[in-house]
Amino acid sequence: MMEVGSARRWLDGLGWVVIYALVWALFSEGGGWSLGVPTILLATGLSVWLGLRPWHPSLRALPGFVGFFLGRMAAGAWDVAVRAVHPRRPLQPAWLDYPIASPSPQVRLVLSALVGLLPGTLASRVEGDQMRVHVLDERQPWKPTVSELEQRLEKLLVRGRPH
Fold first, then answer.
1. Whole-structure pTM value
2. Which of 65, 110, 129, 142 is most exposed by smallest CB count within 10 Å?
3. Which stretches are transmembrane (predicted)?
4. Domain ranges in the chain?
């Protein structure tokens, strides 16, 4: 019978293979697998050897997260389209701080990466519990959207994680 630690390493390895394969497929536009497969296996072996755990998103939280995120991206696209048609639509750009509530480094990393895909926002850095955000119009309700994204990431990446 397989030891629990050994089974966990195999599952972690499988998780890393899936993650690295998805990243490879995304950046190589689905090509270059003769180089990609050895690279994926090497990266997986290194990750398992270092004892790193892959992210195990909560499948229960995934549909709500995807729906929320796609909805916000569509709203952002609509806003850009309207601003392109009406170039005089007023903007009030600003650099503002967003207080990050999650202690999870994974949530912080993904949050800072995804904020730039939300309507009118772009994260520049995270220092301590503050994320510096550039907004196109500070009068728009950007903070509740970023807060909801953070909460959904917390549900997706932390609460759904096996221990």
1. 0.70
2. 129
3. 9-27
4. 4-49, 62-159
